Amino acid sequence: MAKDDINIADDDLKAAKKKRETERQKEWNRKNPEKARAISQRTYYKNREKILQKAREKRRKEHNPNIEKSRERQRIYRAKNPDKTREYSAKYAKLKDIENPNRHAERYAREKEKLLSASKKWRKNNKERASEIQQKSSSRRRASIKHSAENYTLAEIRDLRERSGKKCAFCGERGRMTIDHIVPIAKGGSNGIRNIQFLCRLCNSKKCDFDPIEFAQKNGRLL
Length: 223
Prior knowledge:
With about 220 residues, the protein is mainly α.
């Protein structure tokens, strides 16, 4: 038998073996859908960057002529499957937060003008939705403050400002301060003076509605 014939035979055997293994894997996946899904997710998250990089390279090589069609399919899928889309987005965001807890602050510092411009543009193009979100947020906050067991007074705020030395409680910078609830109102914090601190605008923006311990851990203040 010629050498070329032997190589062809070996290739056929390898192809047949691979086909049998693929069929066995497909059969196992059909019988064990939950385990197969869990393994697939673990594999994806473990090799996520490699998988995404490979996909990007493939798109670049093909110079996808149907990019708009692809995007339209994605838009249709998201519209038809909002729950799955939100679930995936939440998992993705959680994964990225674990990888880099300060990613939002870093991105804001890096792309401040771009983000502010995009936010302003979105509010302008979605006035009703933006107004609805703002009203809901303000309504929840007012209701929480109204039903709080304690409420600070103007005299208490002035006294606290003097005792704090007019410095940010987190970074220590002096300047224009904002009132912050140590335990956020949204998470059950009271509106009493014992739950009030002064933060600079930047630190207050970073803290948002984080729990104080969580916020300190994210910024390397606690282990």
